[in-house]
């Protein structure tokens, strides 16, 4: 039985059971048992995190920045071993996905978090000299970080964006590994533990359990010692976390569900249908469709070119081999979602069934429905199909497309393909006006898969894509502010203020909002 990481030590869990991981490519059980921690483990971790927070307030930002940089270096030094383990547990290919794409992204965002922690740019220091009131963002306290199944590195509870942001803000983190890839998470936690020890972070700054009961997990989220939660996963689990957090009066930053609508206007299809077919199929089938930004909902206007487009996509889906899904649970959920849409009147165009055999897989699937049918059951037709599957909604005209836009739920992304010759510009304006308020990131003439770790990125969106439309899970420094509190100082003597709020700029480089103007003075 593998130990858990609590208060700076790998110790035997106080467990209520155990679980194992499965290789989704072969159906074989992987070696090693992992504990389902009971409340004793949770309580010990919470107590250690509370003590660690008080210590982190004293040591300042530089040890935190050094930890994040050193952790990134250690991950880079173990890329091959980490990619090999994640491949066994998730079925995702070592190259290019894990070794060449996701691990470099994970390393890069840890280094961006390190730079932001060191510079204090994320704190937005604000000074009103006339009233001698000063404010900035600062750490909030222990954070619970819960990672998803589909990104074993970039969103991992003990290495991903939420973890990096929470630590960069100066908070201790209790991570929960995803049960689909416990050994990958253990390897990451071992590297984090080593880096934390080398730079002298408090022993409870980085902790990890593998799994808890649902009741104990929600109890942790509501516990007064946890100040915020970061979560990426299903809508069902996210809503349970939101309820527990709301009742306790604390923030939970949730990435839950998104069908990521793609509107393809007639001029674009007439101009470059073959290219768009290729771009769509590449995006939707990549990693067996297991991306939060997978284009799972396509809106078109009826016509001969549209029929040819749908036929070409269906043929390409049928000709392409199905990808390996992360778990049997993902396959079961995908099958249920497809069934829900078909039972509601959607027509199956391609795929629609689970693959037979030990490999966890599901046929590449295309469904279609008319715009008028969609409008009668809009909520049902936006059921997320997490996998290589997409629903095509064929509207009778542009007016019906705009009506469809008004019935969309909140999404992470929304895409509009339009002709390059300007023939779709007027239609674009009508559609974008409706779509813009429904999505966190609006794209033109490119598919939504691929989330750059950029300061300008918004990986968020209106509910139910996330719990808060004003925040992003990707992009420094903005992502750090989710795990902060706004602290105001009114009439406080200058030598008692944080250095970023004193009259003298601490390094001459920090941008501060002083009397209505951004300045480095």
Structure description:
This protein has two domains: about 40-255 and about 470-480, Aldehyde Dehydrogenase, Chain A, domain 1; about 260-445, Aldehyde Dehydrogenase, Chain A, domain 2 (3-Layer(aba) Sandwich). Helix content is about 40%, strand content about 20%. It has helices spanning about 40-60, 60-75, 80-90, 95-120, 160-170, 180-200, 215-220, 235-250, 265-285, 305-320, 330-345, 370-375, 380, 400-405, 425-435; strands at about 5, 10, 15-20, 35, 125-130, 135-140, 145, 175, 205-210, 230, 250-255, 260-265, 295-300, 345-350, 365-370, 390-395, 410-415, 440-445, 485-490, 510-515, 515-520. The termini are far apart. The chain has a seven-stranded mixed β-sheet with strand order 14-15-16-13-12-17-18, sandwiched between helices. Strand 20 (about 510-515) and strand 21 (about 515-520) form a beta hairpin. It has about 525 residues and is of the alpha/beta class. The chain is globular, with a radius of gyration of 24 Å. It has 15 helices and 21 strands.
Describe the secondary-structure layout.
Blueprint: E1 4-6, E2 9-11, E3 15-19, E4 34-37, H1 39-59, H2 61-77, H3 79-90, H4 94-119, E5 126-128, E6 133-139, E7 143-146, H5 161-168, E8 173-176, H6 182-199, E9 206-209, H7 214-222, E10 228-232, H8 235-248, E11 252-255, E12 261-264, H9 266-285, E13 297-301, H10 304-319, H11 328-343, E14 347-350, E15 365-370, H12 371-376, H13 378-381, E16 389-395, H14 398-406, E17 411-417, H15 425-435, E18 439-444, E19 484-490, E20 512-514, E21 517-519
Parallel strand pairs: 5-20, 7-8, 7-10, 8-9, 10-11, 12-13, 12-17, 13-16, 15-16, 17-18
Antiparallel strand pairs: 1-2, 3-4, 5-6, 6-19, 14-15, 20-21
């Amino acid at each position: 039985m593998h130990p858990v990481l609590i208060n700076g030590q790998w110790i035997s869990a106080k467990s209520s059971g155990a679980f194992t991981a499965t290789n989704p490519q072969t159906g074989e059980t992987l070696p090693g048992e992992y504990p389902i921690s009971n409340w004793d483990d949770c309580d010990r971790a919470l107590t250690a995190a509370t003590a660690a927070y008080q210590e982190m307030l004293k040591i300042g930002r530089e040890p935190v920045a050094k930890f994040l940089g050193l952790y990134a270096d250690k991950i880079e030094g173990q890329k091959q071993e980490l990619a090999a383990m994640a491949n066994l547990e998730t079925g995702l290919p070592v190259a290019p996905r894990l070794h060449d794409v996701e691990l470099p992204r994970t390393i890069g965002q840890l280094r961006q978090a390190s730079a932001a922690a060191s510079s204090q740019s994320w704190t937005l220091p604000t000074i009103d000299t006339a009233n001698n009131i000063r404010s900035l963002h600062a750490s909030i306290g222990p954070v619970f970080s819960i990672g998803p199944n589909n990104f074993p590195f970039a969103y991992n509870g003990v290495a991903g964006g939420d973890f990096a942001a929470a630590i960069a803000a100066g908070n201790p983190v209790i991570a929960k590994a995803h049960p689909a890839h416990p050994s990958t998470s253990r390897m990451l936690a071992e590297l984090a533990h080593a880096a934390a020890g080398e730079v002298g972070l408090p022993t409870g700054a980085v902790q990890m359990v593998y799994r808890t009961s649902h009741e104990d997990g929600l109890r942790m989220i509501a516990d007064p010692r946890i100040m915020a939660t970061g979560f990426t996963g299903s809508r069902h689990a996210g809503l349970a976390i939101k309820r527990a957090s709301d009742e306790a009066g604390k923030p939970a930053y949730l990435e839950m569900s998104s069908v990521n609508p793609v509107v393809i206007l007639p001029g674009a299809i007439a101009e470059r249908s073959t290219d768009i077919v290729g771009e769509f199929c590449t995006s939707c089938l990549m990693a067996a469709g297991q991306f939060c930004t997978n284009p799972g909902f396509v809106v078109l206007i009826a016509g001969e070119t549209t029929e040819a487009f749908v036929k070409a996509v269906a043929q390409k889906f049928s000709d392409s081999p199905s990808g390996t899904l992360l778990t049997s649970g993902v396959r079961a959920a995908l099958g249920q979602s497809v069934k829900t849409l078909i039972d509601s009147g959607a027509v199956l165009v391609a795929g629609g069934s689970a693959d037979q055999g030990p490999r966890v897989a599901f046929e590449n699937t295309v469904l279609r429905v008319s715009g008028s049918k969609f409008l009668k059951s809009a909520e049902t037709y936006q059921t997320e199909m997490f996998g290589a599957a997409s629903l095509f909604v064929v509207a009778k005209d542009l007016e019906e497309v705009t009506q469809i836009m008004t019935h969309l739920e909140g999404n992470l992304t929304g895409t509009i393909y339009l002709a390059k010759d300007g023939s779709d510009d007027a239609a674009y304006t009508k559609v974008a006006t409706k779509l813009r308020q429904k999505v966190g990131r609006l794209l033109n003439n490119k598919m939504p898969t691929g989330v750059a770790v950029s300061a300008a990125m918004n990986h968020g969106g209106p509910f139910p894509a996330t719990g808060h439309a004003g925040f992003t899970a990707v992009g420094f420094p903005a992502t750090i502010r989710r795990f902060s509190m706004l602290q105001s100082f009114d009439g406080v003597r200058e030598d008692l203020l944080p250095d970023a709020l004193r009259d003298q700029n601490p390094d001459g480089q920090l941008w501060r909002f002083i009397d209505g103007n951004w300045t480095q003075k």
